[in-house]
Amino acid sequence: MAKHRSHSVAFKRQVAQEFLSGETLHGLAKRHDLSRNLIRIWVERYEAGAFDEDAVTADLVDGYEARIAALERLVGKQALELEFLKGAQRSGRLPRSAPTSVIVGPAASSSRGGAR
C-alpha cells in the first residue's frame, strides 16, 4: 500500500511558483518526487488563492495547538497538586478523641517543688 505524504502549504506554494516561473512539469515532478497531476492541482489551487487561506488556517491551528499544550500542562500540574494535598490531608487527620489545643508542644510535666 502506498504511503500518503503530507506537504506543507509553503512547499506547495513553492512548487506552484516554480512551475509558473517556467520550470517544466516533468522536471518538477522528478526533482521533488511528486506526480505531475498533483503539481497541476497545486498550481490551480495557487492561482485560485487557496494556499493563502490555507496558510492563515494553518497559523490558527498552530496557535490553538500551542494553547492546548499549555493548558494540558497546567491541568497536569494542578492534578499533581491536588493529589499531594489529598495525601497530606489523609495523613494529617487526628482522631476525634485526640485533645485539641492551640498550644503546640510536649505535654507539661508537673514540677517537684512547685512554683516559686
Detailed description of the structure:
This protein is mostly helical and 116 residues long. It has a domain at 9-89. The protein contains four helices and no strands. It has helices at 9-20, 25-32, 36-48, 50-91. Helix 1 (9-20) packs across helix 3 and helix 1 (9-20) packs antiparallel against helix 4. The radius of gyration is 35 Å and the shape is rod-shaped.
Q: What class would the helix/strand composition place it in?
A: mainly alpha
Q: Give the averaged pLDDT, no decimals.
A: 83
Number of strands: 0
Helix count, DSSP H or I runs of 4 or more residues: 4
Q: What is the structure about, briefly put?
A:
The protein has 116 residues and is mainly α. It is built from four helices and no strands. The chain has helices at 9-20, 25-32, 36-48, 50-91.
Topology summary:
Blueprint: H1 9-20, H2 25-32, H3 36-48, H4 50-91
Helix pairs in contact: 1-3, 1-4
Task: Sum up the structure in keywords.
single chain, 116 residues, mainly alpha, 4 helices, 65% helix, rod-shaped
